[in-house]
Amino acid sequence: MKKSILLISMAALLGGCGATTSIDEYRPNNSVMEINSDESVVILGRRDAGHYDTDREFISCVSGKMKGADIGVVPEQQFIDSIYPWFEPRTAPKGLKRLTRLMQDPDIKSQVDIQRIRYLVWLDGSTKTDNQGGSISCAIGPGGGGCFGFAQWEKSSIYEAIVWDLSDFSEKGRLRVDSAGTSYLIGAVAPIPLLTPVKKDACSSLGKQLKKFFSVQK
C-alpha cells in the first residue's frame, strides 16, 4: 500500500516538474541581422573583476545551439585570449562608445578581422535557488539503512542577450529569457531526485531564438 501511495505521489510531482519558460525580444523594426557565411559571432559573458561572473557553462550551451544555423561561432575563451587583456573583467567595454575606441587600436581590429567576427553577443544573468523547504534524514542500522522525508526548492534562470554589430558599432537587438520551476527530493529508502531542467530550458530557448535573429547570406 505504501509503495502504491509513493508511486502515485511521484507521478503527481513529475506532472508538475516542467520548467515554465518565456522569451521577450526587441529588434528595431523587427529587422533580421544579415551575416555572410564566412563571418562569425562571438558570445561573451558579462563579468565584473571576480565579483560577478555569468555562467561559462551556460555561455557554451548557447553557443552550441547557435552553431546549428550555419553560423560560425568563435569560442569565448579563444576570443578573450586573442586580444588579451582588453576583454578581461576590469577592461571589457560596458558600452558601444568604449567598444568603438577599442576598435581604433590596429592590433585589436586586426584580431577581430582575422577571426571574421561580425557580431558580438553579451550574455548577462544567472540561475538561482530560492524557497527551499522540507528535510531528508538518512540512517544506517543493523537491519540496513534508508532515507525518509521530502524536500523541495525553486530554481529560476534569468538571462539577457545584447547583440552588437561590429561593422557599424550599433546595437541590433535584445533577448531576455525567464525560466522557473520546482525540484523535489523524496526520501524513500534511497533519495529520489525529481529535478526541473530550468537552466537547460533557458539555454535551449535563448539559443534557438537568438539563431532566428540572423539571416545567413551565402
Question: What is the secondary structure topology, with strand pairs?
Answer:
Blueprint: H1 2-15, E1 20-26, E2 33-36, E3 40-45, H2 56-66, E4 72-74, H3 76-82, H4 96-102, H5 106-114, E5 117-141, E6 144-165, E7 170-194, H6 198-212, E8 214-217
Parallel strand pairs: 2-8, 3-4, 3-5
Antiparallel strand pairs: 1-7, 5-6, 6-7
Helix pairs in contact: 2-6
What does this structure look like?
The chain is of the alpha/beta class and 218 residues long. The chain has helices at 2-15, 56-66, 76-82, 96-102, 106-114, 198-212, and strands spanning 20-26, 33-36, 40-45, 72-74, 117-141, 144-165, 170-194, 214-217. The longest helix has 15 residues, at 198-212. Helices cover 29% and strands 44% of the residues. It has one domain (24-217). Helix 2 packs across helix 6 (198-212). Strands 1-7-6-5-3-4 form a six-stranded mixed β-sheet. A two-stranded parallel ribbon has the order 2-8. The model is unreliable at 1-16 (pLDDT under 50). The chain contains six helices and eight strands, in the order αβββαβαααβββαβ. The termini are far apart.
Name the average pLDDT. 81
Structural class: alpha/beta
Oligomer: single chain
* Morphology call: elongated
Radius of gyration: 22 Å
What's the domain count? 1
Helical content (DSSP H or I, runs of 4+): 25-40%
Number of strands: 8
Q: Note the main sheet.
A: 6 strands, mixed
Low-confidence region ranges: 1-16
Measured by DSSP, the beta-strand proportion falls in 35-45%
* Ends apart, CA distance between termini: 64 Å
